[in-house]
Write a structure and sequence with these properties.
The protein has helices spanning about 5-25, 25-45, 65-75, 90-100, 100-110, 115, 120-130, 155-195, 200-225, 245-275, 280-290; strands at about 50-60, 135, 145-150, 230-235. It is about 70% helix and about 10% strand. The chain is of the alpha+beta class and about 300 residues long. It contains 11 helices and 4 strands.
């Protein structure tokens, strides 16, 4: 018999041994998957189902000037909202604002989330909100999605939709403060220059005219240059639960049961062979005596 035929026979014998071993311990090999599947089904029926509602928004004005001035404004105000000056798109800006503590804590107060999620501290609450509220933007379409998971489909939809109102309030507050400060600065400069005579009247007139033009331009920017977030799809109460996914859970439980059952079957087969072999049984008895038996007295 050549070497190739010998290796083929060994492979067939090994496969036959595997099937035989699993057959000898089929109660374990097949019983564990059935048990795991039953447990998974019971768990999926008992556990509180959760639903995810998703609201979709888009930036209505993508003009470079407006978004860039808004980013610069937020960069100057950065301390309260974190370092978001590096954001390159209005969509990324809004994602950061939606994830900011200012927006999340406002929503937490409005919807009594600390009590609902049984959070002891603010940090615990924010961690729970991070897990249950997913906010992201699609780089291709520019759409922003806010997904909220909760045991109540109506509550999940309401909370997802509420993000739009809160981020608009925050954006209005930030931009209004920055624009008003700039307008106040220009107005002060105009007042100072109007009541202070310079040595050269022509220079004074030129400076005053420039300040007035800047003031009027800033007022027009205040009314026109706004990046607005608008709803695309309003979140509706979902009809199907997002958790638990019963089919997937049962499938994973069955595969895990098969894998564990096979391991236990092979371990049991190895132990049976060791017990039937005098040399292996003697070694096993010595091992047991070493760890759990009484120590021999010298």
């Amino acid at each position: 018999m050549d070497e190739h035929q010998l290796n083929q026979d060994e492979d067939e014998i090994s496969l036959l041994d595997i099937v035989t071993t699993l057959g000898k311990h089929k109660k374990i090999f097949l019983g564990l998957p059935v048990l795991f599947v039953i447990i998974a089904i019971i768990y999926s029926l008992v556990v509180t189902p959760k639903f995810m509602a998703t609201a979709t928004f888009m930036v209505a004005n993508k003009s470079g000037g407006a978004s860039q001035s808004l980013l610069a404004s937020l960069g100057a105000a950065g301390g309260a909202l974190g370092d978001i000056a590096g954001v390159k798109t209005p969509e990324g800006l809004y994602v950061d604002l939606l994830k900011s503590e200012t927006v999340r804590l406002e929503l937490a107060d409005q919807f009594h989330l600390k009590e609902r999620y049984k959070a002891k501290t603010r940090d615990d609450l924010l961690k729970v909100m991070d897990a249950l509220i997913k906010i992201d933007s699609d780089k291709k379409s520019g759409l922003i999605k806010v997904g909220v998971t909760d045991k109540s489909p109506e509550f999940a939809a309401e909370l997802a939709n509420a993000h739009l109102k809160e981020v608009r309030k925050l954006m209005d507050r930030i931009t209004t403060n920055q624009e008003q400060l700039y307008l106040q600065f220009l107005q002060q400069q105009i007042d100072i220059l109007s009541h202070r005579a310079l040595k050269d009247p022509a220079v004074q007139t030129q400076l005053l005219t420039q300040l007035i033009n800047n003031y009027e331009a800033a007022r027009m920017d205040e009314a026109q240059n706004q990046v607005v977030l608008n709803p695309v799809d309003v979140a509706l109460p979902p009809e199907r639960r997002s958790y638990p996914k019963r089919t997937l859970m049962v499938l994973i439980a069955g595969l895990a049961g098969l894998f564990l059952g096979a391991i236990i079957a092979f371990i049991k087969e190895a132990l049976d062979k060791m017990n039937n072999d005098p040399v292996s049984r003697s070694s096993m008895d010595q091992l047991k005596d070493t760890w759990w038996g009484r120590r021999s007295r010298g």
